């Protein structure tokens, strides 16, 4: 029997040889082609910019790569290289339009190779890549990303900066041919003149003037053409919650809102939503830098979650977005990983206070108790009410104070922020306010000194959404209002209150205990160091004042190499990283406050709405 088996094996073609004949796996083609095109682009740019490259071995390779034209056509080569670099990223993301552009450009490049240099090798390479793209065209089905004409403005700024930087390299790439010794001012002036097609102040010998001039002019033309294209192409705005979507989500929250303390934040109107086929569950998300970012658990019936998750993953695949979930519960993480094959990592813990167990008595609550009593003796009073109970005048005052006391140019928060206060549709939200009457107070907000806003968590819970205070108020406003809200909770039918999210809480707690190992202590020390900028430790200690129970929250991701990209997208969504116009061009919309404003949200972690921590 063994002899017959050996004989069968000897007649088979080795698997490695079969793989060569079959070609690469279909799923790897976009990455392979994108990498090849990126290398081609880099070689083209190098061939056009650096004269020494023309005599190197890589130059011999570049001579037969599709996309290059004549050796001396530096301008065309540089532009071709830049376009190929831009095209490479889109090919890796499986974009259909990038595939169409590549299918068009490769034959053009091959024809140019043959006409100008009679290069059969270049034609062979172009045909090979073209055949690979045509054979696996099904792998390039990703739809366009949401876009607006603001990208034209971003393009002209970034491309202009890149063109000036590359232009300085081009100007200085021929040091032995420069007439005289021009300074940096003359170099920059020569680049700026060259980008608009005007001869600059620097002169070259040996006919280098036209090479530099054409190269700079081509960069300027490329910047202008790409900007014009982006400005006049049809807009494809990002999806937003429609009135019908919001109505359906509110119906799901009315039935199943008690499952997740973050459920109400699904009603942010800058999110999009996908529903399960039955309509009994939904996942809300926002697309940031190519990451499809969901937050919290799916909304609705747990039995219908898989259907909503499947729609979410299908949408991500259709646009070649990176799927990710920030701040889901343990149950939500289990469903996400089971249904999608994604991985999960513990991100931190949510602080939840059970109202029936809360009390200011006891030694553990002494600091909070003393702080609250001191503030009350200073004349501060508190009110805790539903939004529907406030008059329109009071709501306008609260909105104005919340805007003026924000302390940052942009609103922060995503996964644990609603993004609005006092909306007529949010009448069941709760607002806690602190007041004190002062003689000679000219504040436009009257006696209002601090605000806390809570959103519903089912019928018997609420989640803290924002904290804002006047800088001129006494320290401890946050403690005062949290205590007031917990004491008023029974009258409002509230049994549980979700406070802040503490990132890496377990590492901080275990790392400070006796017997902690060296690795855990090192990790805790690093977190304490980072708290200088992100207040990680101070948020944990602030939450711990109220003796909460801790519920873990998780981040769900596809692969470990996606984590940096997801982290950056989360920081953008939360408002910690803002890719916007410089302050000179940005209009400040919030009113100028009379008092110095305090930053009332905590800049702690990208997975939560920022919460200010006012230490005792």
Feature tags:
616 residues; alpha+beta; disordered C terminus
Description:
By secondary structure, the chain is an alpha+beta fold. It has 20 helices and twelve strands. The chain is globular, with a radius of gyration of 30 Å. It starts with a helix and ends in a 42-residue tail after the last helix. The N terminus and C terminus are likely disordered.
Mean pLDDT: 77
Radius of gyration: 30 Å
Q: Percentage of helical residues?
A: 40-55%
Number of strands: 12
N-to-C span: 82 Å
Give start-end ranges of low-pLDDT stretches: 1-10, 67-72, 581-616
Shape: globular
Tell me what portion of residues adopts beta-strand conformation: 5-15%
Largest β-sheet summary: 12 strands, mixed
Walk me through the topology:
Blueprint: H1 2-10, H2 15-22, H3 29-49, H4 57-62, H5 74-92, H6 96-117, H7 120-135, H8 150-171, H9 184-195, H10 208-232, H11 243-256, E1 272-275, E2 281-288, E3 291-295, E4 299-300, H12 305-319, E5 322-328, H13 330-340, E6 343-354, H14 366-377, E7 381-386, H15 392-404, E8 430-435, E9 448-456, E10 461-469, H16 477-488, E11 496-503, H17 505-511, H18 518-534, H19 536-544, E12 549-557, H20 563-574
Entry summary:
It is built from 20 helices and twelve strands.
């Amino acid at each position: 029997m063994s002899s017959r088996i050996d004989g069968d094996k000897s007649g088979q073609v080795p698997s490695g040889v079969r793989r060569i004949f079959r070609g690469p796996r279909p799923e790897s083609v976009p990455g392979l082609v994108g990498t090849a095109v990126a290398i081609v682009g880099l070689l083209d740019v190098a061939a056009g910019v650096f004269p020494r490259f023309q005599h190197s071995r890589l130059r011999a390779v570049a001579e037969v790569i599709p996309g290059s034209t004549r050796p001396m056509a530096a301008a065309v080569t540089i532009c071709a290289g830049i376009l190929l670099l831009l095209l490479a990223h889109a090919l890796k993301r499986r974009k259909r339009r990038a595939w169409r552009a590549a299918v068009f450009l490769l034959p053009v490049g091959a024809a140019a190779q043959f006409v100008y240099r009679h290069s059969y090798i270049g034609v062979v390479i172009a045909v090979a890549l073209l055949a690979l793209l045509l054979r696996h065209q099904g792998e390039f089905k990703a739809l366009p990303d949401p876009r607006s004409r603001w990208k034209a403005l971003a393009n002209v700024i970034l491309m202009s900066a890149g063109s000036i930087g590359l232009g300085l390299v081009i100007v200085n790439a021929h040091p032995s041919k420069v007439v005289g010794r021009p300074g940096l001012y003359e170099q920059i002036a020569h680049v700026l003149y060259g980008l608009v097609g005007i001869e600059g102040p620097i002169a070259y010998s040996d006919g280098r003037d036209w090479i530099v001039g054409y190269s700079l002019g081509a960069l300027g033309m490329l910047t202008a053409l790409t900007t014009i294209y982006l400005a006049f192409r049809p807009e494809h705005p990002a999806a937003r919650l429609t009135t019908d979507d919001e109505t359906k989500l509110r119906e799901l929250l009315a039935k199943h809102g008690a499952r997740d303390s973050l459920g109400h934040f699904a009603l942010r109107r800058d999110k999009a939503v996908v529903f399960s086929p039955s309509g009994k569950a939904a996942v809300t998300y926002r697309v940031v830098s190519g990451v499809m970012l969901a937050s919290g658990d799916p909304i609705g019936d747990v039995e219908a979650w898989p259907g909503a998750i499947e729609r979410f993953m299908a949408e991500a695949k259709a646009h070649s977005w990176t799927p990710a979930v920030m701040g889901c519960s343990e149950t939500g993480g289990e469903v996400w990983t089971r249904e999608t094959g994604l991985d999960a990592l513990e991100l931190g813990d949510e602080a939840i206070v059970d109202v029936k167990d809360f009390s200011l008595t006891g030694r553990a609550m002494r600091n909070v108790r003393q702080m609250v009593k001191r503030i009350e003796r200073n004349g501060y009073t508190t009110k805790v009410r539903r939004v529907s109970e406030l008059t329109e005048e009071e709501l306008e005052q609260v909105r104005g104070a919340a805007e003026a006391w924000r302390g940052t140019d942009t609103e922060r928060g995503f996964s644990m922020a609603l993004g609005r206060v006092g909306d007529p549709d949010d009448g069941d939200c709760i607002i806690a306010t602190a007041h004190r009457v002062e003689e000679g107070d000219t504040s436009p907000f009257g006696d209002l000194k601090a605000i806390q806003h809570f959103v519903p968590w089912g019928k018997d819970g609420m989640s803290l959404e924002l904290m804002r205070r006047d800088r001129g108020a006494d320290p401890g406003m946050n403690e005062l209002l949290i205590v007031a809200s917990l004491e008023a909770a029974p009258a409002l039918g509230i049994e549980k209150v979700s406070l802040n999210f503490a990132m890496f809480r377990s590492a901080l707690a275990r790392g400070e205990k006796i017997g902690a190992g060296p690795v855990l202590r090192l990790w805790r020390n690093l977190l304490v160091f980072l708290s200088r900028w992100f207040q990680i430790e101070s948020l944990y200690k602030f939450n711990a004042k109220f003796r909460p129970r801790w519920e873990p929250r998780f981040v769900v991701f596809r692969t470990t190499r996606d984590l940096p990209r997801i982290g950056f997208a989360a920081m953008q969504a939360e408002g910690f990283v803002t890719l916007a116009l410089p302050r000179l061009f940005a209009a400040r919309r919030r009113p100028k406050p009379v008092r110095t404003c305090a930053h009332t949200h905590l800049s702690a972690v990208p997975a939560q709405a920022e919460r200010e921590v006012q230490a005792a």
